[in-house]
Design brief:
The complex is a heterodimer. In chain A, 44% of the residues lie in helices and 10% in strands. Chain A has helices spanning 3-14, 28-44, 46-58, 73-90, 92-97, 105-126, and strands at 127-130, 140-143, 164-167, 174-178, 182-183. Chain A has a two-stranded antiparallel sheet with strand order 1-4. In chain A, helix 2 (28-44) crosses helix 4 (73-90) and helix 4 (73-90) packs across helix 6 (105-126). The radius of gyration of chain A is 21 Å and the shape is flat. Chain B is an alpha+beta fold. Chain B has 12 helices and 29 strands. Classes of the chains: A mainly alpha, B alpha+beta. Chain A binds chain B through residues 2, 4-5, 8-9, 12, 81, 84-85, 88, 91, 94-95, 97-98, 100, 103, 106-111, 113-115, 117, 179-185, 187, 194, 196, and chain B through 31, 33, 37-47, 61-62, 64-66, 69, 85, 285, 288, 303, 305-307, 309, 311-315, 317-319, 444, 446-447. Strand 5 (182-183) of chain A pairs antiparallel with strand 5 (42-46) of chain B, so a sheet runs across the interface.
Amino acid sequence: MSSNSRTIARRLFSSSFPPVNDIARDSFLDRFALAWACFFRVLFSPQASARVRAVFAQVPSPALAPPPPAPVAVSDSAAIRLLSLLQREGRLIDFLQQDVTSFSDSDVGAAARVVHDGCQRALRTHFAIEPVRTEEEGSRVTVDEGYDADRIRLVGDVRGQPPYTGVLRHGGWRAARIALPQAVGVHDETVVAAAEVEIG
Amino acid sequence: MTRHAVGIDLGTTHCALAVAPLDTDGARPEVFPIPELVARGEIEARPLLPSFLYFAAAGEGSQSLPWDASRTFAVGDFARARGADAPGRVVASAKSWLSHPGVDRRAGLLPLDAADDVRKISPVEASQRYLEHLRDAYDARFGGGAESLAKQDVVVTVPASFDASARELTMEASLAAGFEHVTLFEEPQAAFYAWTDALGERWRKSVRPGDVVLVVDVGGGTTDLSAIAVVEKQGALDLVRVAVGDHILLGGDNMDLSLAHVAREKLEKSGKSLDRWQRASLVHASRLAKERLLGDESLAACPVAVASRGASLLGSTLRTEITREEVTRTLVDGFFPVVEGGVRPVSRPRVGLTQLGLPYASDPAVTRHLASFLTRQAGALAHASGIASGTVGSSKMLHPTAILFNGGVMKARALRDRLVEILGSWLVADGAPAGSLRVLEGADLDVAVARGACAYALARRGRGLRIRGGTARAYYVGIEDAVPAVPGVEPPIHAMCVAPLGMEEGTEASLPPHELGVVVGEACRFRFFGSSVRRQDTAGAMLGEWDEGELEELPAVEVMLPAEGRREGDVVRVHLRSQSTEFGTLLVEAEPTDPIRPDERWRLELNVRARGDG
């Protein structure tokens, strides 16, 4: 996808999503649970995002925040749309639903090309995936005090206080932009791919 | 309220829209993301709207859009995807049909092999629906009513090679889509505007008076050639479009098909057979392989894998590869062969009327079409004012000094390089100094035309330079000589020029001296011709003979004199008068020699089916 259309998509959807920095701090496990529940809702629904913002705006301490809203069909629907996209473009569900053990590597390789080509295109068109840390893997990096535990996971002999120095083992990934297709009209949202019947 | 200048690229395979606010100084065209159905029940905003229309089957329910919950058809990406699934319900290439003189372009024609329950639509209506989709998308974003796209300053592009009737039909589709302020504009000129827009003021330093810029626009379905001369006028740069090529139905789709054919043969040789879907996905996969191989010279081959239709992917996926040698042979040498400068495209004689198919170019060599264009247009500069050029004289072809590429196909560097190399060798062979050809590096070739059209809409409001050029062709009405009829022998014909080549927009041609007789109350038809090379003919010039290929027959024109104040069956003597309108169309009118009312004139209908069509 051209950088031009990326700019457009960013402009189109930027108003719908809160910048990451705006989200209140919380412990990792709490955040994990909350984020898991809210992730798709916040990302895909401007209304949900506005509500979450409102909650944070009214309650200064994250500890006093009301329990997160229970996940509803909206998040499922977005998840299905993502699966549907990966199936449509790259046959991902077909690939994962099949048992690969009985096939030769060349069969798996041929199928993987279809999946890789299509899913890569879908990923590049709908997400801007970028590394969290841009240094080369294997290089020495310093983790400063107040580092973001969402973005950096410390492994190995972790002790004492930051700053830490260590070797970058994996640069991580983050979605700097996401622009999934939006649902329109009323449809059965459990369908990832419709059955196909050839007439005549 | 007119608050935006809008450019619309109404393409054969894609549409795009660019917008610039009128109230902001220095505003530049921005590509507008177009919401479209990308799958059943899923919508996405994309910079390109595929020019495809899908008629949903009865049981499929509505093809909802945010602005229309109940529509039964879809335009865009989903419609294109359905083309492989249900071809009888999908309209494609409407623009090529719109410019096909052999068919009635206002008649229900598409989809070509329509299912029984699909109401066929005309090429004009298909174009109208694409424009309506753009209008609704714009309105959903900026507000309809007084803010609607219909009220904005809209420039819709057409190929430079579109004749007067195809332009007229494009205008008709725009008006039917509700647009109130539409101007038509030629795509290569739009591409040039996009280039000037991308460079900002620097563009004025990138060209100099005496330059002739060749615009090579190879899109999905068509190849369009134009030449724009840079001249000096009162100390400032001025641009004149001096030559326009023929309408060539040859583009990226042909290239993808031929590469897919190579891949298919290899698969079939190894005993595999492909069904319809696999053939369609093979074309798609071949296009991706083409882009990779042409984009990265270090690749020796690119694997191509085509999945079967069923849910099992493993064990049934066909795999082959496309090699660099195959791409070079099929695309670079097949479509851009090294040829001499003097060659003409190979033309197969057509048998009968090509009514049921599009008149695709019979020679796939873009380079031969280019050679033919430059040779035919050798004299293009002779009549352009303000050009002091050494390229006229004894040269056998028009000598471009710069080349500007446009269209998705020309994104491939290997093809651009090939074209530049060949053109350079022709120029040297024809006496031009070596290395006199520069390449103008342009903007994003997919959306340049929409951007450029938008920039032109701004320029029309006094912001920026306008390319002069006027009508791309001279137009002639055929007049049969009064000779005794001989069965089986067509009476000889004269061609009377009604509009000279290069007639500036908003001007009228002087009244030709010759009179014609038309019968009151009867539709009176004339044969109609166009020429993109006869620059010397003025309005009223009467041609008894012309060189082969100089005049091209267009669909007949027709005038109907109503009986108001006259007796039916009477013969009225008229002059034909033409006008190149501000909106980019040609108006031909019949004006009676003895009017019975002031300002009495009747319009000649330009889009009549050729005589003898079924």
